[in-house]
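Lab meeting, item 3. Inverse folding demo.
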């Protein structure tokens, strides 16, 4: 397809640009306006968020839900997910925080890194139960998995659909409610959440769901009214079901039997990319991917005089049907980068170009880069470079990684 016109910078214009060029690929109905999140895309927004980061009280308040002003969560994750804020830079930014807050925050960064290691090794097998089968509720659930008559679910799903971002606590609520309580397929719930989250990655999202529903650990996260009253006081008082709460008690559900875990979980090679630039020719274009859209992208820094190009992967987007707000976030980011933007199959759109690119630890990149003319591959900015050891548990991985 021809080159798309450059994305604009003004928000309403960006929404219109996405509706015009990408609207046929979103999950919104044809007559529905493209959604927009209050979280803006772009390096300027990312840098501002990092520069104003204050982790004081993070350990105590990171799981608070409502009212929003009590929250300690940072909302850096959309920028981390798309490489505007590489994990090493965010790790360094926490250096002067109070010790307990710094430790808890860095644990969250390590969880993101662990998810990337797992996905880089297992790829699409992260959609299979890692260690245990899915839980089976002791009693049938008579409602939808996320019933809107429950105030806690209604408020949380509204935030997911409108903002495209959730605190970790409510992500666990929704995952547990969907699978542990209602018995619905966790993969379908994970995909619905992924569709809307600005920080949605198959790596972190699937791992979070596997942890919550017990397929990754053998222990389910039991969502009940207790968590709502503790983390979101007032929601229960406004609930139509407050006197007949269907999650009043802890769910009587356990993880399923042991699953046939992927052999690679115990150990094996991980496609971590090069340690230093691998150059086999002279590039004429920098290829930017959705994993690395920051102005510190290694390929971009190494070739500042070359034109840069990004391709909206039309076949992939047609299958995923993401919310328009995710595409608005990307368009705002691309507008600041000033790169050429295409729509189509990336390999076809990049044909005839000699590419410099930053390695991305996702299986789709491996497939596409193998079919493109990549002559300069630059290292991914790992927080901890993957090895060949066991990825069976996060805590063991942390210890082995030092």
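The presenter then showed the designed sequence:
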């Amino acid at each position: 397809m021809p080159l798309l016109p450059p994305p604009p910078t003004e928000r309403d214009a960006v929404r219109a640009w996405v509706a015009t060029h990408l609207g046929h690929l979103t999950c919104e109905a044809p007559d529905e306006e493209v959604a927009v999140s209050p979280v803006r895309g772009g390096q300027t927004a990312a840098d501002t968020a990092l520069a104003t980061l204050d982790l004081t009280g993070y350990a105590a308040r990171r799981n608070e839900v409502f009212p929003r002003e009590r929250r300690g969560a940072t909302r850096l994750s959309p920028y981390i997910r798309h490489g505007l804020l590489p994990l090493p830079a965010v790790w360094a930014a926490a250096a002067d925080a109070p010790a307990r807050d710094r430790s808890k925050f860095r644990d969250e960064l390590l969880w993101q890194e662990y998810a990337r290691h797992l996905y880089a090794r297992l790829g699409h097998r992260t959609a299979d139960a890692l260690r245990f089968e899915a839980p089976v509720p002791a009693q049938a659930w008579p409602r939808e998995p996320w019933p809107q008559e429950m105030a806690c679910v209604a408020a949380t799903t509204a935030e997911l659909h409108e903002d495209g971002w959730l605190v970790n606590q409510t992500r666990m609520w929704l995952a547990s409610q969907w699978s542990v309580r209602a018995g619905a397929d966790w993969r379908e719930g994970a995909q619905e959440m992924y569709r809307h989250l600005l920080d949605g990655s198959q790596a972190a999202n699937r791992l979070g769901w596997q942890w919550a529903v017990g397929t990754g650990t053998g222990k389910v996260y039991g969502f009940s009214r207790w968590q709502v009253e503790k983390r979101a006081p007032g929601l229960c008082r406004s609930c139509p079901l407050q006197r007949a709460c269907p999650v009043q008690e802890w769910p009587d559900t356990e993880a399923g039997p042991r699953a046939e875990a992927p052999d690679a979980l115990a150990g094996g090679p991980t496609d971590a990319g090069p340690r230093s630039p691998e150059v086999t020719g002279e590039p004429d274009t920098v290829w930017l991917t959705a994993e690395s859209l920051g102005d510190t992208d290694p390929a971009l820094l190494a070739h500042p005089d070359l034109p840069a190009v990004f391709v909206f992967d039309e076949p992939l987007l047609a299958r995923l049907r993401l919310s328009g707000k995710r595409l608005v976030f990307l368009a705002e980011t691309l507008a600041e980068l000033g790169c050429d933007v295409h729509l189509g199959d990336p390999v076809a759109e990049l044909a005839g170009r000699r590419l410099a690119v930053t390695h991305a630890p996702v299986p789709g990149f491996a497939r596409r880069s193998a079919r493109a003319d990549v002559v300069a591959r630059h290292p991914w900015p790992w927080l901890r470079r993957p090895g060949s050891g066991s990825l069976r548990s996060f805590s063991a991985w942390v210890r082995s990684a030092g």
